[in-house]
Each structure stands twice: as C-alpha cells, then as structure tokens.
C-alpha cells in the first residue's frame, strides 16, 4: 500500500510539473532583424509596442487593429516570466511584455521585416527582448 501511494504521488507531481511547464511557456520568440534582436510571434514576425498604450492597457482599437494586429492570448493561456495578459476594450485578451501590449504590423511581409519601427512619428517600436 505504501509503494502504491508513493507512485501515485510521484505521478501526480510529475503531471503537475509538466502541466505548469507547458502553461507557462513564453508566447514569443527572439528573432534577428536589421535593427538587432526583436521579440517575434510564432511565425517569426516582428512584434511592436505602442507609446500611446498605458501600462497594461491597449490604446490601439478599432481601425488601428487593422494595421496593427494584436498578439492574441487565449483564455487558457497563463502569464509567464515578464509576460502578462491584458483585457482589450472589446473583451478579447492580448499578450503584453513588461506591461506593454504586443502587436504585429500588416506591412511586414516576412520574418525580420521592421517596417513598423518608428511609424506614426516614432510612436511604434520594435519589442526588444
């Protein structure tokens, strides 16, 4: 009986560790650009931050999102080291890094493109790791 209890506890602890490890994975990667390392989405596309966002709140709504798609978070996602999830005005979820919501740019066509850096009089910036 004692051996069975220990096996059960070890199996449960292992499963919990695996589940936590998967749930806490960072939602971004680091990619190379002509302006140095940048955070990227899972397709390798450069991520950006917006100066008009306040800490943990996106100011890019409506037509803005058409040009600056958000890095969406799912309801099952959990924050990871340096990453948080913000709730947008429409109720959807978005990843943020160090409190800054993350976006891609529609004019970036391939991984490594940085066409959004400095856009709108310098309000958009490459998200740096």
From TrEMBL:
Pfam families: Lipoprotein_15. It comes from the Bacteria. Residues 1-25 form the signal peptide. The keyword Secreted does not apply. One of its GO terms (biological process) is alkane catabolic process. Keywords: Signal. This is Lipoprotein. It comes from Bradyrhizobium oligotrophicum S58. The lineage of its organism: Bacteria, Pseudomonadati, Pseudomonadota, Alphaproteobacteria, Hyphomicrobiales.
